[in-house]
Amino acid sequence: MANDRPKLGILGGMGPQATLELCQRIVDYTDADRDQDHIPTLIYNDTWIPDRTGAILGGDAQRCYEALLSGGRVLEGAGCSILAIPCNTSHYFAARLQEDLGGMKLLHMVRESAAVLARRGCRRVGVLATDGTVRTGVYQRELQALGIECPPLPEEIQRRVMSIIYDEIKRGRRGTPEDFAPIDRAVREELGCDGAVLGCTELSVFRTFHGLPEFYLDALDVLARRCVTACGYPLREC
């Protein structure tokens, strides 16, 4: 393997379990026969970054951005040229981060996921994400630019999504398929969607625990695959 291939930087901690999940998937998706065939990776698991939803909706977005930028600069200074951030809500700051971290290419998980949904032929997509991601339109802008509708979830269903994220996964619990069942019914039957995106990495962790059908595109899965190809390594189909 050539030594001049990019070094991957992962700015994680949002949350820690999702960061581990991304790293495992990158390993799984790299077509490697030995240690040296894998991607050189630096992981900065910065758990002190303020909660993105709380900061953005609570008027403290600048402090959150500065923490993200600081973490990005740590990775940039360590020689990383590709940056992955396993947190959908943080992509509210993606354009600013890319501008301020000119030495690294930020892999835009939300944009990449929207493109996959478009290639699947989806026309109406349910966005399962934090209140911060939903209310700032992080996914809506990317999806609507591709001609894809994204109807808002009913308030009770959005509360259920937030509960799985914050009351279950972020607390080290697993949630249950029964927790997810009303969400599934609402997205498919009430909203009439032909696809949905797991737009929060805690939901990606939930999927690992319980499994979900192909109807649900996992944004963390998209990011893991993109990390492999962006660094110039071959994909292993799992």
Structure description:
With about 240 residues, the chain is of the alpha/beta class. It is built from eleven helices and seven strands. A four-stranded parallel β-sheet has the order 2-1-3-4, sandwiched between helices. Strand 3, helix 4 and strand 4 form a beta-alpha-beta unit. Helix 5 (about 110-120) packs parallel to helix 7. The longest helix is centred in the first third of the chain and has 17 residues, at about 60-75. The mean pLDDT is about 95. Belongs to the aspartate/glutamate racemases family. InterPro entries: Asp/Glu/hydantoin_racemase, Asp/Glu_race, Asp/Glu_racemase_AS_1, Asp_race. Keywords: Isomerase. It comes from Pseudoflavonifractor gallinarum.
Offer a concise description of the structure.
The protein is α/β, with parallel strands linked by helices and 238 residues long. Helices cover 49% and strands 11% of the residues.
